[in-house]
Amino acid sequence: MKLTDDFLPLRAHGTTADVTAEVVYRPRPNAWHRLKENKLALFGLFIIICMLLLAIVGPWLSPYTYADQNLAEANQAPSAAHWFGTDTLGRDLYVRVVYGARISLAVGFVAAAINLAIGVIYGGVAGFFGGKVDRLMMSFVDILYGIPLLLYVILLMVVLSPGLTSIFIALGIAYWLTMARIVRSRIVTLKNEEYVLAARSMGVPASRILFRHMLPNCVGPIIITMTLAIPEAIFTEAFLSFIGLGVSAPMASWGVLAAEGINSIRSYPFQLVAPALAIAITMLGFTFFGDGLRNALDPKGEVKR
Amino acid sequence: MNIWETHDLTKHFTVRRGFLKQNSQLVRALEGVSLSQAEGETLGLVGESGCGKSTFGRTLMGLYPKTSGRIVVAGREIESPADQEHVLQHIQMVFQDPYASLNPRMTVRQSLLEPLTVRTTGHVSLSEADKLAKVDAVLEQVGLTKAQGERYPHEFSGGQRQRIGIGRALISEPQCIICDEPISALDVSIQVQIVSLLEHLQAERRISYVFISHDLNMVRYISQRIAVMYLGAVVEEGPTKAVYENPLHPYTQALIQLNAPLAPHMSIGPVLAGEVPSPLANITGCPFASRCPEVTSQCKEAKPPLVMREGRKVACWRR
Amino acid sequence: MSLVTMENLRVTFHTFAGDVEVVRDVSLKLEAGEVLGIVGESGCGKSVTVQALMGLLPRDITTVKAEALQVADTDCKDFGEASWRHLRGSSVAMVFQDPMTALNPILSVGTQLIESIKLRAKRSGETLGDVKAEAAALLQKVGISDPDRRLAQYPHELSGGMRQRVVIAMALAGKPRLLLADEPTTALDVTTEAQILLLLKELIKTEHMGLIIISHNLRVIAQMCDRMAVMYAGQIVEEGTVEALLGNPRHPYLQGLLQSLPTMATTKLQAIGGQPPDLYSLPMGCSFHPRCPKAMRICAREMPRLENNLRCWLAKAKITPCPTVSGELLEKCDAYCNRLAAANDAEGQSVEGEPATATAPLGATNNTNAEGTVKS
């Protein structure tokens, strides 16, 4: 019997396979799986997390505070007592760098929040309504783009005093523009998608189409723009502080620390090394992670490259 | 009674050209289309790309505002966007591309639930539990399981996604579903599954279909009446059997011959000269005159009217 | 020597979801002047097979293996990118599905054509004559009237059919011996399709080229080809002359495909059940068995080999659900088979009755005797 078994019908003869018989499709890798494959991106994420942790708990690990001056211990090289050495006023550089991380990262995340809050909605509305509304709203963006950042930061400094607040406001004006443009162009593409047409054909109201059908499908570009905007904002803050338009003493951001380090670069180069490294490493971390995210969220990226 | 009627429905799109978009041109997508549909009937709409068959479906549904002409849906004249709700109660749509017509970030259940959630008439009285039960019932009708309702579109094959699309149209309990090339993006082996599902639903619920397709053989199989369109106008319209067995318009004749059933020894053709003219062109005579093998001088001078001939309507000076 | 000899081609894609073999053991042969059609559903590996013939598969994400690969008298088995590029410009050319994306939108038709001609001349070392005249002659050859005016035009100024003609002219510029066409008319209207098919058919005759045409449209294959191969889940399941395959299909998949096309007489369409297979997790045995109405137990267990141009266990089965049988005979046969199945489910019971058809043994070991009773 065993031999004939082979040629007996698998199913009752004459019946076709069940029309809806399920094929179990092996789940395709999602963005997270693809991200996990990208070692550089994971390394970037690791750096970001380390920086965050350091910014939060770092200052408690040291007996000093960022403002403590001790002229007797000025300009000391790195040692067991002062891990990164001290500056010209005898302040512990480790604490100041770690404290600077708080300010720098805060600046970064505020920029991201502004991106999200203003940029996404502004771009979404412009793209969705199109026509005259779109042209008007995007012209405004173009005008803002045309003004150099430095110009209105300096103008702001005249009105307000240099400090964290004015930096936030400056970033607030500048940092949602890219996001608005990206979200707008994405929405314009989505408008022609069949599922948006399908939603319209079912009588879904405009606001629901925008918030339920379109914006959720912009998540990829939004996240990518955000991760790439954060390091840019951090760098801008460092740059503004470096040229003296940033936070004021005794508060320290990385830019301020770098500027102070420059003054004594001949005699005490270590004073510049610590903040410069902190900026460089953080920038690298965000850039690696952002690039990795961009590849992972690309819907066409199913194939390994 | 007719579910819907159109009288001289015309739709022109304006395209702007030039560096400053100063020149505007008219695309004559629909030029005076008068069609209607009876209950439980399938109307096949065929023609080449750009002939206006999809535009007709979308204009009828109110997705595009009409330029002129009349639309009557279930006895009510459709005049303003306020009437849209009335149209959607009676007419729904299934789209061509099952990969693009479902929101990738909504589960199947959310997609099916949406028409019930947003509608301001009809289903308002349904409780949440009733709505969910209705979704499950529709899932079953289109051949999917309840468990599959929790999944996202990318977890399904093309044929299954098209089932979801049909379910989404079905859930509003329309009298008519406009199927805009519902099978042309699917593999041949899956096309028949979808057509069979449509047939089955029609038998069960007496739904009418407007079946828009360029596959003439499938249209012959599924529809009772057929309208052939060319450059925004209907050139021949009548009972499927009559039109297929004895096509009168030269364009219909060519289309039917080009879609001849498969045979081991097939010749290519017939070959019509040239290509479909641009819809931007302003043609005074018969739109088909530039390609017609039987063209006369009269054809180039005036557009032939759609008149009754041998049990169907045809627009040709020679018939 | 054949124009194309491909033996046991295997193509693996390396994806994030793992490695996936999209072409499995495909062998092809093509003579000059012959037209071969490859049909199959999307994802069956037909495009990949043809791309492998031109070395077009991206090297970093694919592995291509073949026991033999010869194109136009050249052994390309171990070709590098440079050798492939040389072959592509001269012996082999491809016509793509979408004529709009196959042409560069910012260059005029003439510029693109002349570039192809110059490339060919550079490769073969011939001295160039009047390239513009040659380009015009090419356009004339593909049926474009007023070629001098067309040469100055840009792709967006041409209609779809005209663009596809230009793409074909560019393919001809290299004077290829083998033309590959991947769904050449799918993006075109049916009236334009007829024009392009006619053109291709004439060119094969006048230029004495070989043509491999990929299509999901059986009508295109029937009109164009001498031989055809049917692919399913990366394998060829049946191959032969167009007359044989369309007139007397042997593989249940091809039979199902042909039944899926409505004809004049069709009153009820017969669908192939199920969904297309997932290449990442193919079923055991024959890839088609979950959807096959004639599946047997062995089909779920062992992969059939391609023998006699057919990859199906039915060829080995003694009692064949024979498509030529009809009426009462078929009912008897069905009833018998159903009883066999039922008996097998009940394990070990013998079945009484006559098989309606007892076809000649095809070499399989089978202890069903001539009367068809099964001995346990």
TrEMBL record, chain A:
It is found in: Cell membrane. The keyword Ribonucleoprotein does not apply. Signal peptide: none annotated. It is a multi-pass membrane protein. Residues 101-290 form the ABC transmembrane type-1 domain. Gene3D superfamilies: MetI-like (1.10.3720.10). One of its GO terms (biological process) is transmembrane transport. The chain crosses the membrane at residues 40-61, 103-128, 166-183, 209-230, 236-258, 270-289. Belongs to the binding-protein-dependent transport system permease family. This is Oligopeptide transport system permease protein OppC. It comes from Veillonella ratti. The gene is oppC.
From TrEMBL, chain C:
One of its GO terms (cellular component) is plasma membrane. Residues 364-376 have a biased composition (Polar residues). Residues 347-376 are annotated as: Disordered. It is found in: Cell membrane. GO terms for molecular function: ATP binding; ATP hydrolysis activity. Residues 4-258 form the ABC transporter domain. Belongs to the ABC transporter superfamily. This is Oligopeptide transport ATP-binding protein OppD. The gene is oppD_2.
